[in-house]
Amino acid sequence: MTKSLLILPGDGIGPEVMVEVRKIIDWMNEQGQDFEVSEDLVGGAAYDVHGVPLSDATMEKAQEVDAVLLGAVGGYKYDELDFSVKPERGLLRLRKEMDLFANLRPAQCFDALADFSSLKRDVVAGLDIMIVRELTSGIYFGEPRGIIEEGNERVGINTQRYTESEIARAARSAFELARRRGGKVCSMEKANVMESGILWRDVVTEEHANYPDIELTHMYADNGAMQLVRNPKQFDVIVTDNLFGDLLSDAAAMLTGSLGMLPSASLGAPMANGRPKALYEPVHGSAPDIAGQGKANPCACILSLAMALRYSFDMGEEATRLEASVEKVLADGVRTPDLMQSGEGTPATTSQMGDAVLEAFKRASS
Ligand code: IPM
Ligand code: MG
Fold first, then answer.
1. Which of 48, 56, 162, 315 has its CA 20 to 30 A from that of 288?
2. Architecture per CATH, 1-105+262-366
3. How many whole angstroms from 266 Cα to the centroid of ligand 1?
4. Which atom belonging to ligand 1 lies closest to the Cα atom of 283?
5. Is the overall model pTM greater than 0.90, yes or no?
6. DSSP codes of every residue in 176-242
7. Which pLDDT band holds residue 267 (cuts at 50, 70, 90)?
8. Catalytic: 250?
9. Closest-lying ligand to the alpha carbon of 264?
10. For atom 11 of ligand 1, which residue has the closest CA?
11. Which pLDDT band holds residue 36 (cuts at 50, 70, 90)?
12. CATH of domain 128-255
């Protein structure tokens, strides 16, 4: 079975970090893998050519491939565009139309980088948690929404709305993941204030009956935020809704010290060939302030490829080897500027970092 990959480099530093990912895929193909790679436009790059941040043709391709690998979207020159054609809309369309309901956001602290965290080393060293964020429902998409007139003032409206099946499938993703990890799930909502939170807690508890080997706990999301900065290592898998997941995953990301290191996966239902609908992307944005200067850290994008190997292509061993290669390069002291204190020596360029990871991966694979 061939492995089809659609690469959408996007804007800002997206294209330059994706070059480093291509080097790794090309090398794996030289070694006998059969990745079929195509490239296309998303975000501002697509707007410049098509007048929309994602063309219908690209959307169709994304539906057909085994996995989409996306760089980043957005840039200053698109800040004034109408809401409907902003670069971010391209990403939201991919998530919604591919029905990528489970967003996996690992927050892992590499030992060589523990001193970069704003928390003390012993609180974060060895941290390895996974946030499962529901990605296609909740207040991001609920109706009614809008800004209406009421009496002599305007009212802004958004609606938190979850069906049982939407909660159940997010919960199952979390339980399945916990099985491959530390065996613990903590579910976060606001069941003390919100009916959708009461339902969330109910449904997660019901689904848990099918996973007796997994330890389930519940936490109010505000307490969860506090616990994440107090003692993050108490968590293994956290499952939560779209908006809480957006907030909690940013907080968790910063625990690790560098956004330049964090990958993510957004997964949907299995396709006919058994592989899940999938999109992989680094958590860092397009970073327009450093784009095109060779300063970007390609590790988050490379680690997103590792997640693709694991979750789309059943290549867990290769994924682990690629992750270990990134860790080895960091331990050897190779650093892009985001991983250095000021005045600390010469930083590696984007391509030097990419080459170092590729060399380590080659050595580990031989
Ligand atoms: C994220 C981002 C997006 C979100 C934005 C860019 C729409 O913050 O992926 O976390 O809010 O989901
Ligand atoms: Mg966010």
1. 56
2. 3-Layer(aba) Sandwich (3.40)
3. 12
4. 9
5. yes
6. HHHHHTTSEEEEEE-TTT-HHHHHHHHHHHHHHTT-TTSEEEEEEHHHHHHHHHH-GGG-SEEEE-H
7. very high
8. yes
9. 1
10. 246
11. very high
12. 3.40.718.10
